[in-house]
Write a structure and sequence with these properties.
- The two termini are about 30 Å apart.
- It is built from ten helices and six strands, in the order βαβαβαβαβαβααααα.
- It has two domains: about 5-140, Rossmann fold; about 145-210, Arc Repressor Mutant, subunit A.
- Strands 2-1-3-4-5-6 form a six-stranded parallel β-sheet, with helices on both faces.
- The chain has helices at about 15-25, 40-50, 65-75, 90-100, 115-125, 130-140, 155-165, 170-180, 185-195, 200-210, and strands spanning about 5-10, 30-40, 55-60, 80-85, 105-110, 130.
- About 40% of the residues are buried.
- α3 (about 65-75) links the parallel β3 and β4.
- About 50% of the residues lie in helices and about 15% in strands.
- It is globular, with a radius of gyration of 17 Å.
- The chain has about 220 residues and is of the alpha/beta class.
Length: about 220
């Protein structure tokens, strides 16, 4: 069922032609409304506080405050706002800092328009959305073991079940169906998991689960 209210989107990119192009594209899509444009990271932070968008499309390389720092500040100040990185860069020094800063999605600018629309809907629902190139990088990173200790506040068995399914890429609806519980219960478990692990989003939770051996890359 589609929400009656459109998804409110803020576009942050230092290239006017990119902002206008994305705005024109999204104007043709039902259920999404562009509420503002920012030309740098500082303006993105300020407009997010002023306009309270649901999703911020964030370029990474912008003058002054870059997209990674802007993402960090937005997520810290307004955790209900979802940040979807939309950039030309797939290098490790951009991908992982952006995810660590709290970005819930990472899309490359050469993606198909329908992929952008789908990603906006996914991050709006609180689900992660990664371009295939980025997903491969994340999987490679996940395969490296770590000596980081487990959280001192242990997860319950049900929270571990939810975490395993999150790490396999399931959204709230899929987890609810698999565990035969309500989506509201899943959201509660996800919130508890992120709080206990001191993580910003589902991507970081998946990284944690794989690094700690809670779930394997070989699992279906």
């Amino acid at each position: 069922m589609t929400d009656a209210r459109p998804i409110r989107v803020l576009i942050a990119d230092d290239h006017t032609i990119v902002r206008k192009g994305i705005r024109a594209l999204l104007a043709q899509v039902g259920g999404i409304k562009v509420v503002g444009e920012a030309s740098d990271g500082e303006q993105a932070v300020a407009l997010t506080e002023q306009l309270r968008p649901d999703v911020v499309l964030m370029d990474l390389l912008m003058p002054g405050t870059d997209g990674i720092e802007a993402t960090r500040r937005i997520v810290e100040r307004q955790p209900g706002v979802r940040v979807l990185v939309l950039t030309s860069f797939a290098s490790d020094d951009k991908v992982f800092p952006a995810i660590k800063a709290g970005a819930l999605g990472y899309l490359l600018k050469d993606s198909d328009p329908q992929d952008l629309v789908q990603a906006i809907h996914q991050v709006y629902r609180g689900e992660s959305s990664l371009h295939p190139t980025i997903a491969r990088k994340v999987l490679q990173e996940l395969s490296h073991p770590t000596d980081r200790p487990l959280t001192p506040d242990p997860l319950s068995e049900r929270e571990l079940d939810v975490l395993r399914l999150m790490a396999q890429g399931l959204g709230n609806q899929g987890i609810a169906a698999r565990l035969t519980i309500s989506e509201a219960t899943v959201r509660s478990h996800v919130s508890n998991i992120l709080s206990k692990l001191h993580l910003a989003n589902r991507i970081q939770a998946a990284l944690y689960a794989l690094r700690e051996g809670i779930v394997s890359l070989d699992e279906p």
